């Protein structure tokens, strides 16, 4: 059990970190809570020297205002605001940092659902000047609802996206014959044009073969999500058909995911919305060749089990 015990306040926030028990007494002032470097290090299981280096990078890149996020006690101890801790969590590539962000989001959600105002809620309301409490609540609800998407964008900006939360149990393997039959069935929806789905060369067959490529007896793309992402990418970028490349790519992408029982969540909602499908397809179409790996990681993170 991890607990933050903020002095001068009745609130105690906690979350479970495996079997470890950790308690950190933090300062409460100016409508936020403050940590020392050793406390941040204990929070993420890192060395104080490493945390100090990460914090220096944050300020060097002007991500945060050093004047409002650092305070010094009368005894000369340096404290960092919760904003610094959150920013540091994105630079610490570990399950503990991800869990910490999830914990912060839960605090916000719990506060909103209970109709109360958390420390961060109060701080946001204070720092937004003319923004009233209802507006601050609305802002926090948006931040909470889209925390995963914003996390992906932050990792994208810092080139820190990874493949995670994927599924290895393949139920359906897409073959050239099955895929072409599906494409021919799709043709009628778009007017039955002779150009739609008409192959220009053998690149489509090659695209399907590549997603099942192996090296030293192991698949290069072992998860369903990685295969689906590469399928979308290759069909869009290879322009294998005289017409309909993007529509065919998007259709095969969601069809492949559906055949592997990953398109819909347990509650029946789509794992990837219509507008997200359009955005991903166009993003890949406009991307540069050297951005391929990052495009794949974006797609995987939007269809994996964490989303």
From TrEMBL:
This is Cytochrome C biogenesis protein CycH. PROSITE patterns: FIDO. Residues 166-301 form the Fido domain. PANTHER family: CYTOPLASMIC PROTEIN, CYTOPLASMIC PROTEIN-RELATED.
